[in-house]
Amino acid sequence: MFDNLTGKQGLVFGLITGVGLSAIIGFAIVAPKLLRNNYAENTLAQNYQLTQPIDQPAQAIAEAPTPTNIPKSDKPKVELFVMSNCPYGLQMEKALIPAYDLLKNKADIEVKFVSYAMHGKPEVDENTRQYCAQQQDKDKYFSYLNCYATTEDSASCIKQSGLNESKINSCIEKTDKQFAITNKYNDRASWLSGQYPIYPIHAELNDKYGVQGSPTLVINGVQVDASRTPNALKAIICSAFNNPPAECGQTLASASPQPGFGAGQTQTATAGGCGG
């Protein structure tokens, strides 16, 4: 067959054959790596029942409607679970702060922590610092949080908020021993899928509510989805009152804070998270 090919035809045939052979060799090299990566991701998801990719990127979404399945109470209990350095947890916290300032005397609003950390030892330490700040004085804690979420400067924000640094440090030491936080961090065998240190302070609540990632909003014991704007969070909290107070008639900002540290805003509602 090849004896009948002209020189030009032979050249074309050789090129086509070479490309095809290169493609086969390339697939043989890359395919096992792709399969291994896919297996690792699926294993991590199965171990912690992750339903979304780790560090899920932000996506534009329509503003979520106010849920109708939230149990009502005279004083709603609002629990926001975050990782302190998660960009999307910070975004939700910045949206929550104005709603807290408006409703702090009417609802029980707290920040709590996901039971594992994805952003290293600094996040583990910041979680404990914020836990202690909130134990000391909730108003000053939210002032600290407003500063920290903008500047990422914990030392300056402690002073600016009026928190007692000595008491914070004593609380950190006591809390670390009580929950064996540093011991768990140093015990890599206990890390989630060998990658993420366990953060145990609110582990029982994480299990109770099915918290898997940051941010997770729980109101009166029920996980709820909410748009990350001050006004949307105000509305969803107000929907949980038996008799909404007059403050619920006020309108807060409708822009969503930017993910991560900083004071910027975005006009587009976003969804993203750290973890499942």
Walk me through this protein's architecture.
This protein has 276 residues and is α+β, with helices and mostly antiparallel strands. It has 2 domains: 2-48; 56-275, Glutaredoxin. The protein has 9 helices and 9 strands. A 4-stranded mixed sheet has the order 3-2-5-6, sandwiched between helices. Helix 2 (87-103) runs antiparallel to helix 4 and helix 2 (87-103) packs across helix 9. It is globular. Residues 1-53 and 58-62 have low confidence and may be disordered.
What is the global morphology?
globular
CATH superfamily of the largest domain: Glutaredoxin
- Return residue spans where pLDDT drops below 50 for at least 5 consecutive residues: 1-53, 58-62
**Main β-sheet description:** 4 strands, mixed
GO cellular component, one term: extracellular region
Keywords: Glycoprotein, Membrane, Secreted, Signal, Transmembrane, Transmembrane helix
Protein name: Thioredoxin-like fold domain-containing protein
Transmembrane segments: 12-31
Brief overview:
With 276 residues, the chain is of the alpha+beta class.
Question: Could you outline the blueprint of secondary structure elements for this entry?
Answer:
Blueprint (H helix, E strand, L loop, with lengths): L6 H42 L7 E5 L16 E6 L4 H17 L4 E6 L6 H17 L1 H14 L2 H8 L3 H15 L1 H6 L16 H7 L3 E2 L1 E4 L2 E3 L5 H9 L17 E2 L7 E2 L3 E6 L1
Parallel strand pairs: 2-3
Antiparallel strand pairs: 1-9, 2-5, 4-9, 5-6, 7-8
Helix pairs in contact: 2-4, 2-9, 3-4, 3-6, 4-5
Keywords: Glycoprotein, Membrane, Secreted, Signal, Transmembrane, Transmembrane helix
Subcellular location: Secreted
Protein name: Thioredoxin-like fold domain-containing protein
